[in-house]
Amino acid sequence: MGTWNVDAISIPGILRLTLEGRFTLEEMTAFVEAHNRAIDGYGDSDYKVWCDISKLLTLSQECTQLFEKAKLYSNAHKNFRGSAVLVTNAVVALQHRRTSFES
After folding, report:
1. What is the DSSP string of 12-23?
2. Tell me, what's the pLDDT at 11?
3. Distance, CA of 84 to CA of 64 (rounded, Å)
4. CA nearest to 70, candidates 19, 101, 34, 97
5. Is the pTM of this model over 0.85?
6. What residues contact 98, with CB distance under 8 A and at least 6 apart?
7. CA-based, 20 to 30 A from 21: which of 56, 66, 67, 101?
8. More confident site: 95 or 67
9. What percentage of residues in the chain have a pLDDT greater than 70?
10. Secondary structure element (H or E) that encloses residue 30, with its range
11. How far is CA 78 from CA 7, 47, 68, in A?
12. What is the mean pLDDT of the chain?
């Protein structure tokens, strides 16, 4: 079971994301929807992303594709000012790099 948190409030201009565990397709879909809503909430205001995936387990191909769509959604906004990611699992780090490079 995967858990996630999307926090666009605690630090103004910083979208804080946390993903932990092994995600089902339904859980990742819910995360991506919340992620995209949070970005929409910034309107035209600049924002950065802080993503903690240090406790995330390897993603399935389907979940990896959804995670990449979330990155693409953020990157498509002119007010997106970059991201920082905390990762400890080597395979998850490779998945993250690959989907970031491709998007």
Report:
1. TTEEEEEEEE--
2. 97
3. 18
4. 34
5. yes
6. none
7. 101
8. 67
9. 97
10. helix 25-41
11. 20, 10, 18
12. 93
